[in-house]
Amino acid sequence: MQKATINGKNFEITSTDQGFVVNGNSVQWDLVKISEDYFHILHNNKSYRAEVVKQDASTKSVVIKINGHTYTAALKDQFDLLLEKMGMSAAASTKINNIKAPMPGLIIDLKVKAGDVVKPGDQLLILEAMKMENILKSPGEGTVKNVKVKKGDSVEKGQVLVEF
Q1: Which of 92, 118, 143 is the last residue of a domain?
Q2: Which of 34, 150, 155, 163 has the most CB atoms lying inside 10 A of its own CB?
Q3: Which residues lie closer than 8 Å to 28 by C-beta, 6 or more apart?
Q4: What confidence tens digit (pLDDT) does each residue in 111-144 have?
Protein backbone atom coordinates (compact mmCIF):
# COMPACT_ATOMS: atom_id res chain seq x y z
CA MET A 1 0.00 0.00 0.00
CA GLN A 2 1.05 3.56 -0.68
CA LYS A 3 -0.39 6.90 0.33
CA ALA A 4 -0.53 9.99 -1.85
CA THR A 5 -1.44 13.50 -0.84
CA ILE A 6 -2.59 15.45 -3.88
CA ASN A 7 -3.39 19.14 -3.41
CA GLY A 8 -4.24 18.47 0.25
CA LYS A 9 -6.42 15.36 -0.29
CA ASN A 10 -5.23 11.95 0.97
CA PHE A 11 -5.49 8.75 -1.07
CA GLU A 12 -4.62 5.13 -0.23
CA ILE A 13 -3.36 3.27 -3.29
CA THR A 14 -2.93 -0.49 -3.64
CA SER A 15 -1.63 -2.28 -6.71
CA THR A 16 -3.35 -5.52 -7.74
CA ASP A 17 -3.09 -7.89 -10.72
CA GLN A 18 -6.12 -6.17 -12.26
CA GLY A 19 -4.85 -2.60 -11.76
CA PHE A 20 -5.05 -0.08 -8.96
CA VAL A 21 -7.42 0.29 -6.01
CA VAL A 22 -7.75 3.88 -4.77
CA ASN A 23 -9.52 4.40 -1.42
CA GLY A 24 -11.15 0.99 -1.81
CA ASN A 25 -12.42 1.58 -5.36
CA SER A 26 -11.00 -0.23 -8.38
CA VAL A 27 -9.68 2.20 -10.99
CA GLN A 28 -9.68 1.10 -14.64
CA TRP A 29 -7.66 3.23 -17.00
CA ASP A 30 -5.54 3.04 -20.10
CA LEU A 31 -2.19 4.82 -20.00
CA VAL A 32 0.05 5.39 -23.02
CA LYS A 33 3.44 7.06 -22.84
CA ILE A 34 3.74 9.63 -25.64
CA SER A 35 7.25 10.87 -24.87
CA GLU A 36 9.60 11.22 -21.90
CA ASP A 37 7.30 13.27 -19.64
CA TYR A 38 4.01 13.15 -21.56
CA PHE A 39 1.22 10.59 -21.28
CA HIS A 40 -2.26 10.00 -22.69
CA ILE A 41 -4.87 8.55 -20.29
CA LEU A 42 -8.31 7.10 -20.99
CA HIS A 43 -10.56 6.84 -17.92
CA ASN A 44 -14.37 6.47 -17.89
CA ASN A 45 -14.52 7.21 -21.64
CA LYS A 46 -12.71 10.52 -21.14
CA SER A 47 -9.36 11.49 -22.60
CA TYR A 48 -6.66 13.18 -20.53
CA ARG A 49 -3.25 14.57 -21.45
CA ALA A 50 -0.75 14.38 -18.60
CA GLU A 51 2.67 15.97 -18.25
CA VAL A 52 5.18 15.31 -15.48
CA VAL A 53 6.35 18.86 -14.76
CA LYS A 54 8.76 18.18 -11.88
CA GLN A 55 9.97 15.15 -9.91
CA ASP A 56 11.93 15.24 -6.67
CA ALA A 57 13.13 11.82 -5.56
CA SER A 58 14.55 13.12 -2.27
CA THR A 59 11.15 14.40 -1.07
CA LYS A 60 9.16 11.80 -3.04
CA SER A 61 7.04 14.47 -4.67
CA VAL A 62 5.88 15.10 -8.21
CA VAL A 63 4.11 17.95 -9.99
CA ILE A 64 1.77 16.81 -12.76
CA LYS A 65 -0.26 18.85 -15.23
CA ILE A 66 -3.44 17.14 -16.45
CA ASN A 67 -5.43 18.90 -19.17
CA GLY A 68 -3.92 22.23 -18.11
CA HIS A 69 -4.56 21.81 -14.36
CA THR A 70 -1.52 21.43 -12.08
CA TYR A 71 -1.48 18.89 -9.24
CA THR A 72 1.22 18.39 -6.61
CA ALA A 73 1.51 14.87 -5.21
CA ALA A 74 3.53 13.80 -2.15
CA LEU A 75 4.02 10.04 -2.07
CA LYS A 76 4.69 7.67 0.82
CA ASP A 77 5.54 4.02 0.27
CA GLN A 78 5.16 1.17 2.76
CA PHE A 79 8.53 1.95 4.37
CA ASP A 80 7.70 5.65 4.87
CA LEU A 81 4.38 4.63 6.43
CA LEU A 82 6.10 2.14 8.76
CA LEU A 83 8.67 4.73 9.87
CA GLU A 84 5.89 7.26 10.45
CA LYS A 85 3.93 4.71 12.49
CA MET A 86 7.04 4.09 14.61
CA GLY A 87 7.48 7.84 15.17
CA MET A 88 10.56 8.12 13.00
CA SER A 89 9.33 10.27 10.12
CA ALA A 90 11.71 11.53 7.44
CA ALA A 91 11.11 15.11 8.60
CA ALA A 92 12.71 14.31 11.95
CA SER A 93 15.79 12.88 10.23
CA THR A 94 16.60 16.22 8.54
CA LYS A 95 16.87 18.08 11.85
CA ILE A 96 20.45 19.15 12.41
CA ASN A 97 22.23 19.93 15.67
CA ASN A 98 25.63 21.08 14.48
CA ILE A 99 28.09 21.15 11.60
CA LYS A 100 31.58 19.78 12.19
CA ALA A 101 34.72 20.31 10.16
CA PRO A 102 35.11 17.38 7.76
CA MET A 103 38.89 18.01 7.60
CA PRO A 104 41.48 20.37 9.07
CA GLY A 105 41.64 23.74 7.36
CA LEU A 106 41.19 27.50 7.44
CA ILE A 107 37.86 29.36 7.59
CA ILE A 108 37.98 31.85 4.71
CA ASP A 109 34.34 33.03 4.69
CA LEU A 110 31.19 32.78 6.81
CA LYS A 111 27.81 32.85 5.07
CA VAL A 112 25.58 32.68 8.19
CA LYS A 113 25.29 34.27 11.62
CA ALA A 114 23.36 33.49 14.81
CA GLY A 115 19.61 33.74 14.22
CA ASP A 116 19.71 32.89 10.50
CA VAL A 117 17.22 30.27 9.29
CA VAL A 118 18.72 27.77 6.83
CA LYS A 119 17.22 25.23 4.46
CA PRO A 120 18.85 22.10 3.00
CA GLY A 121 21.60 23.11 0.59
CA ASP A 122 22.12 26.65 1.93
CA GLN A 123 25.78 27.70 2.14
CA LEU A 124 27.11 27.97 5.71
CA LEU A 125 30.82 28.69 5.33
CA ILE A 126 33.88 28.17 3.16
CA LEU A 127 36.70 26.01 4.49
CA GLU A 128 40.07 26.02 2.73
CA ALA A 129 41.90 22.72 2.95
CA MET A 130 44.89 21.58 0.89
CA LYS A 131 44.66 24.77 -1.20
CA MET A 132 41.05 24.01 -2.19
CA GLU A 133 37.94 25.92 -1.17
CA ASN A 134 35.20 23.67 0.24
CA ILE A 135 31.71 25.11 0.61
CA LEU A 136 29.97 23.52 3.58
CA LYS A 137 26.20 23.41 3.06
CA SER A 138 23.32 22.75 5.41
CA PRO A 139 22.09 19.14 5.31
CA GLY A 140 18.69 20.12 6.74
CA GLU A 141 16.51 22.89 8.12
CA GLY A 142 17.34 24.82 11.25
CA THR A 143 18.02 28.13 12.95
CA VAL A 144 21.64 29.00 13.63
CA LYS A 145 22.17 29.28 17.40
CA ASN A 146 25.87 29.97 17.40
CA VAL A 147 28.75 30.24 14.95
CA LYS A 148 31.72 28.80 16.86
CA VAL A 149 34.40 30.10 14.46
CA LYS A 150 35.32 33.34 12.75
CA LYS A 151 36.97 34.22 9.47
CA GLY A 152 40.69 33.34 9.59
CA ASP A 153 40.37 30.60 12.25
CA SER A 154 42.24 27.32 11.80
CA VAL A 155 40.09 24.30 12.59
CA GLU A 156 40.72 20.63 13.23
CA LYS A 157 38.78 17.69 11.82
CA GLY A 158 35.60 17.10 13.85
CA GLN A 159 35.59 20.57 15.43
CA VAL A 160 32.10 22.04 15.81
CA LEU A 161 31.74 25.02 13.48
CA VAL A 162 28.04 25.92 13.61
CA GLU A 163 25.41 24.99 16.22
CA PHE A 164 21.66 24.80 15.56
Answers
A1: 92
A2: 155
A3: 19, 43
A4: 999 999 998 889 999 999 988 999 999 888 889 9
